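for the recovery benchmark. tokens below, seq after
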């Protein structure tokens, strides 16, 4: 009996030592896989996330990418906890969303910038006919940005005090009587054949197979807009120090991701790290 008891005690001690060892090895404090659900626009955000999926798996993190075709659900899903994080938006949009929706979302890291471009529809140049129809994103921050690009391209003039809050009501000069059509950002490429020109976000330009070379005018990568409109990894306030989120932020800001962006997006997506 004493011999049997000694054997049992030895086995229990060995099991305890193995358990302790499994909890202190690797990037996780546990041998269990951590699930990290991240909402993203299909392109380029989800594609960029795919690049780091295996790297995170090696750290015990199962990156689950949930794709969205709009700018609202990724934020509301992060707010209600359905998602751990999202990656699809720039900082001004995030701030405006918090202000208008009462959400509590914060940026963890700036990853890339998507220059806004003016793309051709029925017109092949910026010298459009009188009364031409130009599509712009209908959300507040991207509409202002689009109007500023149209102004910089000589198509209209805005109230200088409007800045990043500009709307169609701030147009002070419109010599060609342009009609500004406010359309959901995701739908602009689908409406190109009905528009003379459209100002399109970089991610939706990528999805439609457009590149920087297709744009008649483009925000400069060294412009003020490039610093203001960086696309960010976002979490609900209070989750900024989640180890899995921080691991994702680090993985997204590597030479591997930089090279992927530069090799695949022809200037429509620009690294910001």
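predicted aa per position
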């Amino acid at each position: 009996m004493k011999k049997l008891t000694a054997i049992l005690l030895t086995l229990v001690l060995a099991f305890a030592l193995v358990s302790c060892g499994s909890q202190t090895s690797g990037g996780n404090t546990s041998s269990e896989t951590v699930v990290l659900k991240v909402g993203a626009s299909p392109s380029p955000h989800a594609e960029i996330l795919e690049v780091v999926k295996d790297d995170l798996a090696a750290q015990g993190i199962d990156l689950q990418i949930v794709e969205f075709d709009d700018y609202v659900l990724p934020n509301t899903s992060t707010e209600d906890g359905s998602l751990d994080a999202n990656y699809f938006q720039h900082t001004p949009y995030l701030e405006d969303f918090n202000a208008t929706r009462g959400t509590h979302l914060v940026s963890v890291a700036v990853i890339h910038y998507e220059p806004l471009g003016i793309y051709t529809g029925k017109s092949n140049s910026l010298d459009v006919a009188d009364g031409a129809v130009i599509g712009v994103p209908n959300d507040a921050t991207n509409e202002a940005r689009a109007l500023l690009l149209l102004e910089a391209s000589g198509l209209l003039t805005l109230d200088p005090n409007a800045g990043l809050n500009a709307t169609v009501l701030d147009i002070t000069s419109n010599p060609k009587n342009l009609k500004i059509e406010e359309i959901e950002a995701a739908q602009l490429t689908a409406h190109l054949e009905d528009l003379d020109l459209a100002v399109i976000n970089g991610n939706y330009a990528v999805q439609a197979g457009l590149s920087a070379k297709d744009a008649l005018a483009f925000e400069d990568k060294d412009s003020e807009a490039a610093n203001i409109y960086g696309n960010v990894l976002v979490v609900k306030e209070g989750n900024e120090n989640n180890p899995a989120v921080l691991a994702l932020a680090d993985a997204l800001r590597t030479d591997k991701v930089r090279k992927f962006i530069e090799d695949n997006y022809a200037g429509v997506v620009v690294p910001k790290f």
